[in-house]
Design goal:
Aspartate Aminotransferase, domain 1, 2 domains, 7-stranded mixed sheet, 406 residues, disordered N terminus, 4-stranded antiparallel sheet, 13% strand
Length: 406
Protein backbone atom coordinates (compact mmCIF):
# COMPACT_ATOMS: atom_id res chain seq x y z
CA UNK A 1 0.00 0.00 0.00
CA UNK A 2 1.39 3.42 -0.92
CA UNK A 3 1.80 6.17 1.66
CA UNK A 4 -1.11 8.10 0.12
CA UNK A 5 -3.48 5.13 0.05
CA UNK A 6 -2.46 4.12 3.56
CA UNK A 7 -3.24 7.61 4.84
CA UNK A 8 -6.60 7.52 3.06
CA UNK A 9 -7.49 4.18 4.62
CA UNK A 10 -6.56 5.37 8.09
CA UNK A 11 -8.47 8.59 7.57
CA UNK A 12 -11.61 6.78 6.44
CA UNK A 13 -11.39 4.38 9.37
CA UNK A 14 -11.10 7.29 11.80
CA UNK A 15 -14.00 9.08 10.13
CA UNK A 16 -16.20 6.03 10.53
CA UNK A 17 -15.14 5.58 14.17
CA UNK A 18 -15.33 1.76 14.13
CA UNK A 19 -17.55 1.73 11.07
CA UNK A 20 -20.76 -0.13 11.96
CA UNK A 21 -21.36 -3.39 10.23
CA UNK A 22 -17.72 -3.87 9.23
CA UNK A 23 -14.82 -5.78 10.68
CA UNK A 24 -12.02 -3.64 9.30
CA UNK A 25 -11.26 -0.24 7.78
CA UNK A 26 -14.26 1.11 5.91
CA UNK A 27 -12.74 1.94 2.53
CA UNK A 28 -15.60 2.59 0.11
CA UNK A 29 -13.93 4.73 -2.51
CA UNK A 30 -14.52 8.15 -0.95
CA UNK A 31 -10.86 9.07 -1.14
CA UNK A 32 -9.19 11.86 0.78
CA UNK A 33 -11.00 14.59 -1.17
CA UNK A 34 -14.37 13.05 -0.36
CA UNK A 35 -13.51 12.72 3.30
CA UNK A 36 -12.30 16.31 3.41
CA UNK A 37 -15.52 17.50 1.75
CA UNK A 38 -17.64 15.65 4.33
CA UNK A 39 -15.68 17.09 7.23
CA UNK A 40 -15.97 20.62 5.88
CA UNK A 41 -19.73 20.21 5.33
CA UNK A 42 -20.37 18.81 8.81
CA UNK A 43 -18.11 21.34 10.48
CA UNK A 44 -19.83 24.21 8.72
CA UNK A 45 -23.35 23.06 9.55
CA UNK A 46 -25.18 25.28 12.01
CA UNK A 47 -27.97 22.81 12.89
CA UNK A 48 -26.83 19.33 13.94
CA UNK A 49 -28.14 16.53 16.12
CA UNK A 50 -24.59 15.81 17.27
CA UNK A 51 -20.98 16.61 16.48
CA UNK A 52 -18.57 13.82 15.55
CA UNK A 53 -14.94 13.82 16.59
CA UNK A 54 -13.95 13.97 12.91
CA UNK A 55 -15.29 17.53 12.78
CA UNK A 56 -13.03 18.87 15.53
CA UNK A 57 -10.08 21.16 14.92
CA UNK A 58 -6.99 20.67 17.06
CA UNK A 59 -6.80 24.31 18.08
CA UNK A 60 -10.45 24.47 19.15
CA UNK A 61 -10.11 21.27 21.15
CA UNK A 62 -6.99 22.50 22.93
CA UNK A 63 -8.53 25.89 23.63
CA UNK A 64 -11.61 24.30 25.20
CA UNK A 65 -9.45 22.10 27.39
CA UNK A 66 -7.31 25.04 28.52
CA UNK A 67 -10.34 27.22 29.21
CA UNK A 68 -12.40 24.75 31.22
CA UNK A 69 -10.20 21.98 32.65
CA UNK A 70 -9.34 24.14 35.65
CA UNK A 71 -12.91 23.68 36.82
CA UNK A 72 -12.43 19.93 37.31
CA UNK A 73 -8.79 19.69 38.37
CA UNK A 74 -6.07 21.96 39.74
CA UNK A 75 -3.94 22.88 36.73
CA UNK A 76 -1.10 23.99 38.99
CA UNK A 77 -0.49 20.35 39.85
CA UNK A 78 2.34 18.53 38.08
CA UNK A 79 1.62 16.59 34.93
CA UNK A 80 1.01 12.89 35.41
CA UNK A 81 3.77 10.34 34.96
CA UNK A 82 2.81 6.74 34.21
CA UNK A 83 -0.67 7.07 35.63
CA UNK A 84 -0.34 9.14 38.77
CA UNK A 85 -1.77 12.60 39.51
CA UNK A 86 -4.76 13.52 37.37
CA UNK A 87 -5.05 9.96 36.05
CA UNK A 88 -5.33 8.60 39.57
CA UNK A 89 -8.00 11.19 40.33
CA UNK A 90 -9.96 10.16 37.23
CA UNK A 91 -9.77 6.52 38.31
CA UNK A 92 -11.03 7.43 41.78
CA UNK A 93 -14.00 9.42 40.48
CA UNK A 94 -14.88 6.70 37.97
CA UNK A 95 -14.87 3.97 40.62
CA UNK A 96 -17.07 6.14 42.82
CA UNK A 97 -19.56 6.79 40.00
CA UNK A 98 -19.83 3.09 39.26
CA UNK A 99 -19.90 2.01 42.89
CA UNK A 100 -16.80 -0.16 42.40
CA UNK A 101 -13.80 -0.62 44.69
CA UNK A 102 -11.28 0.58 42.13
CA UNK A 103 -10.79 1.51 38.48
CA UNK A 104 -7.78 1.56 36.15
CA UNK A 105 -7.31 3.94 33.23
CA UNK A 106 -6.46 2.37 29.86
CA UNK A 107 -5.52 4.10 26.60
CA UNK A 108 -8.11 2.02 24.71
CA UNK A 109 -11.18 -0.04 25.47
CA UNK A 110 -9.82 -2.90 23.38
CA UNK A 111 -6.88 -3.22 25.75
CA UNK A 112 -9.04 -2.79 28.86
CA UNK A 113 -11.40 -5.59 27.90
CA UNK A 114 -8.71 -7.99 26.77
CA UNK A 115 -7.01 -7.54 30.10
CA UNK A 116 -10.25 -7.96 32.04
CA UNK A 117 -11.19 -11.15 30.23
CA UNK A 118 -7.76 -12.76 30.51
CA UNK A 119 -7.68 -11.92 34.23
CA UNK A 120 -11.06 -13.59 34.71
CA UNK A 121 -9.92 -16.58 32.64
CA UNK A 122 -7.01 -17.07 35.02
CA UNK A 123 -9.24 -16.77 38.06
CA UNK A 124 -12.03 -19.04 36.83
CA UNK A 125 -9.74 -21.55 35.14
CA UNK A 126 -11.83 -21.30 31.96
CA UNK A 127 -10.65 -19.31 28.94
CA UNK A 128 -14.00 -19.44 27.13
CA UNK A 129 -15.99 -16.20 26.90
CA UNK A 130 -19.71 -16.21 26.07
CA UNK A 131 -20.69 -13.10 24.12
CA UNK A 132 -22.80 -11.90 21.21
CA UNK A 133 -21.35 -12.59 17.73
CA UNK A 134 -21.97 -8.95 16.77
CA UNK A 135 -20.32 -7.49 19.82
CA UNK A 136 -17.44 -5.04 19.46
CA UNK A 137 -14.90 -7.61 20.61
CA UNK A 138 -15.89 -9.97 17.79
CA UNK A 139 -16.25 -7.42 14.98
CA UNK A 140 -13.89 -4.52 15.53
CA UNK A 141 -10.77 -5.78 17.28
CA UNK A 142 -9.07 -7.96 14.61
CA UNK A 143 -9.60 -11.16 16.62
CA UNK A 144 -7.53 -9.75 19.48
CA UNK A 145 -9.24 -11.96 22.08
CA UNK A 146 -8.03 -15.01 20.19
CA UNK A 147 -4.76 -13.82 18.67
CA UNK A 148 -3.36 -11.81 21.59
CA UNK A 149 -5.07 -13.10 24.71
CA UNK A 150 -5.53 -16.76 23.78
CA UNK A 151 -9.24 -16.78 24.60
CA UNK A 152 -12.02 -18.55 22.73
CA UNK A 153 -15.59 -17.34 22.32
CA UNK A 154 -19.02 -18.96 22.17
CA UNK A 155 -22.34 -17.35 21.27
CA UNK A 156 -25.48 -17.87 23.36
CA UNK A 157 -27.59 -16.27 20.59
CA UNK A 158 -27.32 -14.86 17.09
CA UNK A 159 -30.49 -12.77 17.38
CA UNK A 160 -30.38 -8.96 17.10
CA UNK A 161 -30.54 -8.52 20.88
CA UNK A 162 -28.76 -9.50 24.07
CA UNK A 163 -29.04 -13.17 25.09
CA UNK A 164 -31.85 -14.33 27.33
CA UNK A 165 -31.45 -16.16 30.62
CA UNK A 166 -32.74 -19.34 28.98
CA UNK A 167 -30.15 -19.10 26.20
CA UNK A 168 -27.35 -18.65 28.71
CA UNK A 169 -28.63 -21.57 30.79
CA UNK A 170 -28.87 -23.85 27.74
CA UNK A 171 -25.48 -22.99 26.23
CA UNK A 172 -24.00 -26.39 25.43
CA UNK A 173 -20.54 -25.98 26.96
CA UNK A 174 -18.94 -24.38 30.01
CA UNK A 175 -17.72 -20.79 29.90
CA UNK A 176 -15.80 -18.76 32.44
CA UNK A 177 -17.12 -15.29 31.65
CA UNK A 178 -20.33 -13.89 30.21
CA UNK A 179 -19.66 -10.59 28.44
CA UNK A 180 -22.66 -8.33 27.80
CA UNK A 181 -22.39 -5.23 25.59
CA UNK A 182 -24.71 -2.56 26.99
CA UNK A 183 -26.19 -1.35 24.70
CA UNK A 184 -25.60 -3.74 21.78
CA UNK A 185 -24.59 -1.27 19.09
CA UNK A 186 -24.78 -3.50 16.02
CA UNK A 187 -28.39 -4.40 16.79
CA UNK A 188 -29.40 -0.72 17.00
CA UNK A 189 -28.11 0.25 20.45
CA UNK A 190 -30.62 -2.07 22.08
CA UNK A 191 -30.94 -2.99 25.75
CA UNK A 192 -32.86 -5.67 27.63
CA UNK A 193 -35.34 -4.74 30.32
CA UNK A 194 -34.06 -4.52 33.88
CA UNK A 195 -35.78 -7.80 34.71
CA UNK A 196 -34.22 -9.51 31.66
CA UNK A 197 -30.77 -8.19 32.57
CA UNK A 198 -30.96 -9.38 36.16
CA UNK A 199 -32.21 -12.79 35.01
CA UNK A 200 -29.40 -13.29 32.49
CA UNK A 201 -26.80 -12.32 35.10
CA UNK A 202 -28.29 -14.81 37.53
CA UNK A 203 -28.24 -17.48 34.82
CA UNK A 204 -24.51 -16.90 34.34
CA UNK A 205 -23.92 -17.15 38.09
CA UNK A 206 -25.73 -20.49 38.11
CA UNK A 207 -23.23 -21.64 35.47
CA UNK A 208 -20.38 -20.63 37.84
CA UNK A 209 -19.38 -17.86 35.44
CA UNK A 210 -18.44 -14.26 36.16
CA UNK A 211 -20.13 -11.36 34.35
CA UNK A 212 -18.32 -8.55 32.57
CA UNK A 213 -20.12 -5.54 31.09
CA UNK A 214 -18.83 -3.96 27.89
CA UNK A 215 -20.13 -0.59 29.00
CA UNK A 216 -18.53 1.63 26.38
CA UNK A 217 -21.90 3.40 26.30
CA UNK A 218 -23.06 2.47 29.79
CA UNK A 219 -23.34 6.13 30.76
CA UNK A 220 -26.60 6.58 28.82
CA UNK A 221 -28.26 3.32 29.92
CA UNK A 222 -29.58 4.54 33.28
CA UNK A 223 -32.82 6.13 31.94
CA UNK A 224 -33.86 2.91 30.17
CA UNK A 225 -33.29 0.76 33.23
CA UNK A 226 -34.66 3.33 35.64
CA UNK A 227 -31.68 2.66 37.90
CA UNK A 228 -28.57 4.68 38.85
CA UNK A 229 -25.24 3.76 37.31
CA UNK A 230 -23.89 2.14 40.45
CA UNK A 231 -26.89 -0.20 40.69
CA UNK A 232 -26.47 -1.26 37.06
CA UNK A 233 -22.72 -1.79 37.49
CA UNK A 234 -23.32 -3.77 40.69
CA UNK A 235 -24.83 -6.61 38.64
CA UNK A 236 -21.43 -7.29 37.05
CA UNK A 237 -18.12 -8.48 38.42
CA UNK A 238 -16.31 -5.93 36.26
CA UNK A 239 -17.26 -3.08 33.95
CA UNK A 240 -15.46 -1.27 31.13
CA UNK A 241 -16.49 2.30 30.28
CA UNK A 242 -15.32 4.63 27.53
CA UNK A 243 -14.56 8.31 28.03
CA UNK A 244 -14.91 9.46 24.42
CA UNK A 245 -18.02 7.80 23.01
CA UNK A 246 -20.67 9.64 25.04
CA UNK A 247 -18.65 11.88 27.35
CA UNK A 248 -16.83 13.67 24.51
CA UNK A 249 -13.40 12.89 25.89
CA UNK A 250 -10.29 12.84 23.75
CA UNK A 251 -9.62 9.13 24.29
CA UNK A 252 -9.27 6.52 26.97
CA UNK A 253 -11.24 3.98 28.94
CA UNK A 254 -11.45 2.48 32.40
CA UNK A 255 -11.83 -0.99 33.84
CA UNK A 256 -13.67 -1.00 37.17
CA UNK A 257 -14.18 -3.82 39.62
CA UNK A 258 -12.77 -5.41 42.78
CA UNK A 259 -9.48 -3.94 43.93
CA UNK A 260 -7.60 -7.22 43.54
CA UNK A 261 -8.77 -7.56 39.93
CA UNK A 262 -7.87 -3.96 39.11
CA UNK A 263 -4.42 -4.38 40.67
CA UNK A 264 -3.84 -7.40 38.44
CA UNK A 265 -5.19 -5.46 35.46
CA UNK A 266 -2.62 -2.72 36.05
CA UNK A 267 0.15 -5.31 35.84
CA UNK A 268 -1.23 -6.58 32.54
CA UNK A 269 -1.70 -3.02 31.31
CA UNK A 270 2.05 -2.56 31.74
CA UNK A 271 2.75 -5.80 29.85
CA UNK A 272 0.46 -4.74 27.02
CA UNK A 273 2.26 -1.41 26.67
CA UNK A 274 -0.54 0.67 28.14
CA UNK A 275 1.47 2.60 30.74
CA UNK A 276 1.75 5.85 28.79
CA UNK A 277 4.21 8.47 30.08
CA UNK A 278 1.80 11.46 30.01
CA UNK A 279 -1.97 11.12 29.70
CA UNK A 280 -3.20 14.38 31.22
CA UNK A 281 -5.01 15.70 28.09
CA UNK A 282 -7.13 12.54 27.87
CA UNK A 283 -7.68 12.44 31.65
CA UNK A 284 -8.67 16.10 31.86
CA UNK A 285 -11.09 15.79 28.95
CA UNK A 286 -12.61 12.71 30.59
CA UNK A 287 -13.13 14.63 33.84
CA UNK A 288 -14.73 17.44 31.83
CA UNK A 289 -17.03 14.94 30.14
CA UNK A 290 -18.13 13.54 33.48
CA UNK A 291 -18.82 17.09 34.66
CA UNK A 292 -20.52 18.49 31.53
CA UNK A 293 -21.87 15.68 29.36
CA UNK A 294 -22.91 13.01 31.84
CA UNK A 295 -25.65 15.13 33.47
CA UNK A 296 -27.11 15.93 30.01
CA UNK A 297 -27.44 12.33 28.85
CA UNK A 298 -30.87 11.62 30.41
CA UNK A 299 -32.27 14.64 28.57
CA UNK A 300 -30.62 13.45 25.34
CA UNK A 301 -32.12 9.98 25.78
CA UNK A 302 -35.58 11.47 26.28
CA UNK A 303 -35.24 13.76 23.26
CA UNK A 304 -34.02 10.90 21.06
CA UNK A 305 -37.53 9.44 21.36
CA UNK A 306 -38.96 12.71 20.01
CA UNK A 307 -36.48 12.75 17.13
CA UNK A 308 -37.06 9.09 16.23
CA UNK A 309 -40.83 9.54 16.08
CA UNK A 310 -40.46 12.70 14.00
CA UNK A 311 -38.14 10.94 11.56
CA UNK A 312 -40.81 8.30 10.96
CA UNK A 313 -43.42 10.99 10.42
CA UNK A 314 -41.07 12.84 8.08
CA UNK A 315 -40.40 9.78 5.93
CA UNK A 316 -44.14 9.13 5.62
CA UNK A 317 -44.84 12.76 4.76
CA UNK A 318 -42.10 12.70 2.12
CA UNK A 319 -43.61 9.51 0.65
CA UNK A 320 -40.38 7.57 1.06
CA UNK A 321 -40.80 4.12 -0.54
CA UNK A 322 -39.75 2.35 2.66
CA UNK A 323 -38.00 3.27 5.88
CA UNK A 324 -37.22 1.84 9.27
CA UNK A 325 -36.28 3.54 12.54
CA UNK A 326 -34.99 1.06 15.09
CA UNK A 327 -35.67 0.83 17.90
CA UNK A 328 -38.92 2.64 17.14
CA UNK A 329 -38.64 4.02 20.67
CA UNK A 330 -34.88 4.33 21.24
CA UNK A 331 -33.36 2.72 24.32
CA UNK A 332 -30.56 5.30 24.55
CA UNK A 333 -29.77 8.55 22.74
CA UNK A 334 -28.63 6.54 19.70
CA UNK A 335 -30.55 4.46 17.16
CA UNK A 336 -30.44 3.39 13.52
CA UNK A 337 -32.32 4.39 10.38
CA UNK A 338 -32.65 2.26 7.22
CA UNK A 339 -33.61 3.52 3.74
CA UNK A 340 -33.88 1.74 0.33
CA UNK A 341 -31.05 3.55 -1.44
CA UNK A 342 -27.34 2.96 -1.97
CA UNK A 343 -25.14 4.20 0.86
CA UNK A 344 -23.15 6.55 -1.38
CA UNK A 345 -26.37 8.15 -2.66
CA UNK A 346 -27.61 8.85 0.87
CA UNK A 347 -24.24 10.14 2.07
CA UNK A 348 -24.11 12.51 -0.90
CA UNK A 349 -27.60 13.80 -0.06
CA UNK A 350 -26.58 14.34 3.56
CA UNK A 351 -23.44 16.24 2.56
CA UNK A 352 -25.33 18.39 0.03
CA UNK A 353 -27.97 19.26 2.61
CA UNK A 354 -25.28 20.39 5.06
CA UNK A 355 -23.44 22.36 2.36
CA UNK A 356 -26.54 24.07 0.95
CA UNK A 357 -28.64 24.68 4.06
CA UNK A 358 -26.36 24.34 7.08
CA UNK A 359 -28.57 21.49 8.37
CA UNK A 360 -26.86 18.16 9.08
CA UNK A 361 -29.68 15.74 9.82
CA UNK A 362 -27.62 12.65 9.00
CA UNK A 363 -23.93 11.92 8.71
CA UNK A 364 -22.47 8.94 6.92
CA UNK A 365 -24.50 6.00 5.57
CA UNK A 366 -23.34 2.39 5.24
CA UNK A 367 -24.44 -0.66 3.22
CA UNK A 368 -26.36 -3.19 5.33
CA UNK A 369 -23.92 -6.07 5.88
CA UNK A 370 -26.67 -8.68 6.22
CA UNK A 371 -29.45 -7.15 4.13
CA UNK A 372 -30.33 -7.17 0.44
CA UNK A 373 -28.48 -4.90 -1.99
CA UNK A 374 -29.71 -1.33 -2.18
CA UNK A 375 -30.46 -0.95 1.54
CA UNK A 376 -28.35 1.38 3.67
CA UNK A 377 -28.38 2.47 7.27
CA UNK A 378 -27.19 5.40 9.33
CA UNK A 379 -26.58 5.75 13.05
CA UNK A 380 -28.29 8.75 14.64
CA UNK A 381 -27.03 10.31 17.86
CA UNK A 382 -29.02 12.96 19.69
CA UNK A 383 -26.42 14.82 21.73
CA UNK A 384 -26.67 18.18 23.50
CA UNK A 385 -26.61 19.98 20.12
CA UNK A 386 -29.83 18.20 19.15
CA UNK A 387 -31.84 19.26 22.17
CA UNK A 388 -32.97 22.45 20.42
CA UNK A 389 -34.59 20.54 17.55
CA UNK A 390 -38.38 20.33 17.63
CA UNK A 391 -40.35 17.56 15.98
CA UNK A 392 -41.33 20.05 13.28
CA UNK A 393 -37.64 20.84 12.66
CA UNK A 394 -36.93 17.14 12.13
CA UNK A 395 -39.86 16.65 9.72
CA UNK A 396 -38.74 19.66 7.69
CA UNK A 397 -35.14 18.42 7.60
CA UNK A 398 -36.31 15.01 6.38
CA UNK A 399 -38.13 16.67 3.50
CA UNK A 400 -34.98 18.58 2.55
CA UNK A 401 -32.88 15.41 2.77
CA UNK A 402 -35.23 13.23 0.72
CA UNK A 403 -35.47 15.98 -1.88
CA UNK A 404 -31.73 15.78 -2.42
CA UNK A 405 -31.58 12.04 -3.08
CA UNK A 406 -30.44 11.68 -6.67
Amino acid sequence: MTDDSSRAARSQDALAEDAPGTDGPDVDGLGEDGIRRMRVAWRGATRVLSRTSAERRIGVRLADLAAHAGGVYDLDESVDMYGDGVVTELERRTARLLGMEDAAFFPTGTMAQQVALRCWAGRTGNSTVALHPRSHAELHERDALHEVSGLRTVHPTTGPRLPTADEVSRLGEPFGTLMLELPLREAGFVLPSWEELTEVVEAARERDAVVHFDGARLWECAPHFGRPLEEIAALADSVYVSYYKSLDGISGAALAGPRTLVDEARAWRHRYGGDVFHQFPAALSALLGMERELPRLPQCVAHAKVVAQALGEGFRAARTPWSRVHPEVPHTHQFRVWLPYAAEVLTEAAVRQAEETGVALFHRWFPCPEGPPGIAFCEVTVASQGLEWTAEDVVAAVAGFIGRIA
